[in-house]
Specification:
With about 260 residues, this protein is mostly helical. It has one domain. The radius of gyration is 19 Å and the shape is globular.
Length: about 260
């Protein structure tokens, strides 16, 4: 009974922290939630002009191709880019109240997940306008599965970055550089088929590429690439283990360094 009450307490706390993350994000913002949609759409417009009009990439429905990659990427990218400041930004809470500190990372990820789910109807509208009907049945089982796999990756990397940043404050800048490099090394604005075959195996070495490929296959074609999903699971479990071990080793010093 006591254990169940404790779990319920943590769930309630997670809900409150997630609500706080969403309110802080849109504080003094007039457009609010619309920013989570405008950002990938604006990027898609820029890349469409650069690659489709200027460089003349031969691909049908290139705008839709871009959006099915940019929407999931924004979800993952936002979580990792904000991870360095999760503990620093909540220093007052950490110093005054005892609670599982990792819930702060979980709440930040949940906030981005909610925005991603709310953006899916917009993606559906773009698909219908492009003359393509989304495979809703495939989405019903594929979206929850990929969200779980992506959460493992986001949480594992995020909690490691947030923990290390308390002791090495350059992590925020290093994370920004790393995410910029990984964006162009991940098949988001180009298909895997454009990568020379002799280098294609390197895609699997990019920890963010398999989950992004899985998202595009599901959203665009209604299929789930089990091979890529399996690689994503392996990466997720690895990052979850390493991130949790690092957090446990450093967390006892958090209040001291904040």
């Amino acid at each position: 009974m006591i254990k169940n009450r404790k779990i319920t307490h943590y769930i309630d706390l997670l809900v409150v922290l997630t609500q706080k993350e969403m309110k802080v994000r849109y504080k003094s913002s007039y457009l609010g939630y619309a920013w989570s949609i405008l950002q990938p759409i604006s990027f898609a417009l820029v890349f469409f002009v650069a690659f489709k009009i200027v460089m003349r990439i031969q691909m049908d429905n290139y705008t839709l191709f871009l959006l099915t990659g940019l929407f999931p990427w924004q979800n993952l990218s936002n979580s990792l880019l904000t991870a360095p400041m999760v503990f620093v930004g909540n220093s007052s809470i950490i110093k005054k109240v005892f609670f599982p500190r990792n819930l702060l990372v979980t709440a930040a990820i949940m906030s981005d997940m909610i925005h991603f789910l709310l953006a899916l109807p917009v993606l559906v509208a773009f698909m219908l306008l492009s003359g393509q009907t989304p495979d809703i049945l495939a989405w019903l089982y594929g979206v929850p599965l990929l969200i779980i796999l992506q959460f493992l990756i986001q949480y594992g990397i995020g909690i490691a970055i947030a923990s290390v940043n308390l002791f090495f404050r350059d992590m925020e800048r290093l994370t920004t550089i790393a995410m910029t490099m990984l964006f162009y090394c991940t098949p988001i604005i180009y298909p895997i088929s454009m990568v020379p075959e002799k280098y294609r195996y390197l895609i699997a070495l990019n920890p963010l590429a398999p989950i992004m490929v899985s998202w595009r296959e599901l959203l665009l074609n209604g299929t789930l690439d089990l091979g890529m999903a399996g690689i994503s699971l392996a990466y997720g479990l690895m990052f979850l283990t390493l991130g949790t071990l690092l957090f446990r080793r450093l967390s006892w010093k958090f209040a001291e360094v904040l």
